[in-house]
Specification:
Distance between the termini: 14 Å
Structural class: alpha/beta
Shape: globular
CATH class: Alpha Beta
Helix content: 25-40%
CATH topology: Spore Coat Polysaccharide Biosynthesis Protein SpsA, Chain A
Strand content: 15-25%
CATH superfamily: Spore Coat Polysaccharide Biosynthesis Protein SpsA, Chain A
Strand order of the largest sheet: 5-4-1-6
Number of domains: 1
Largest sheet: 4 strands, parallel
Number of strands: 6
Radius of gyration: 14 Å
Length: about 110
């Protein structure tokens, strides 16, 4: 089943002062850690971001088509660009994502025709 991984990294960073996805932990960007852990298990990977700095990663960057809608703006823009019927959304600041759990969710979605 072809599935696109979409990493949401389009926040305004008002509380942190910089993009959370560009935070380094043990010398590695947290978004890079997600890409490394998950992207090989998906057909495509898209990054929802409005910051050109995310271009250092090898995945396509999708900016919000409609600004100031919060995460929904990124979700809508990425769904329009996705080439698969199944899409998994992950926040860029979720370093402890479990691939087995994601696979169970995807399988459940397919089996229930959700």
């Amino acid at each position: 089943m072809e599935t696109t991984l979409i990493i949401l990294a389009g926040g305004k960073s008002t509380r942190m002062g910089f993009d959370k996805g560009l935070l380094k932990v043990k010398g590695k960007y947290i978004i890079q850690d997600l890409i490394d852990k998950l992207s090989n298990n998906f057909t495509n990977t898209l990054i929802s971001a409005n910051n050109k700095e995310y271009e250092i990663f090898k995945s396509p960057i999708i900016s919000d088509k409609i600004k100031d809608l919060g995460p929904i703006g990124g979700i809508v823009s990425c769904l329009e660009k996705s080439k698969t019927d199944l899409n998994v959304f992950i926040s860029c600041d979720s370093p402890h994502v479990n691939l087995e759990t994601l696979n169970k969710l995807i399988l459940s979605s397919v089996e229930s025709n959700a």
